[in-house]
Design a protein that fits this description.
Length: about 120
């Protein structure tokens, strides 16, 4: 499924959640009408004594939601990586003696903290 089509389908699922497509738990267990409605409606709210008990989601719409979720995770990860690189873009990598001196300075600065880690305190 193309990304734009996927986004449209996921947005469609979200908008259908607020519609009046409901069945009771009793109707779910006794009837089969919901099976005919589900592919067209995409999502059906299952209620028990007026409260939402579950949601029935068609296979295509569930796949669209999962793929949309994955795309959002990837987008978030890219943004986080980009933020990390932006904060470090001014930092110049150290090598050789400069790196050794910076490491010694960091150890000296954090000597007490490192001792606590090593000693298990």
């Amino acid at each position: 499924m193309a990304p734009m089509e996927l986004l449209e389908r996921a947005a469609g699922v979200s908008s259908r959640v607020s519609r009046d497509s409901r069945i009771s738990v009793t109707e779910l267990s006794r009837g089969t009408d919901w099976r005919k409605r589900l592919p067209d409606e995409g999502i059906i709210e299952v209620t028990d004594r007026g409260d939402t008990a579950a949601w029935l989601v068609s296979d295509k719409d569930m796949q669209a939601l999962v793929k949309r979720y994955s795309l959002l995770e990837e987008e978030l990860e890219r943004a986080q990586i980009s933020a990390i690189f932006r904060t470090r873009e001014d930092a110049r990598p150290k090598t050789g003696n400069e790196l050794k001196q910076a490491a010694r300075a960091a150890f000296a600065k954090r000597g007490q903290e490192l001792s606590e880690i090593i000693d298990g305190d």
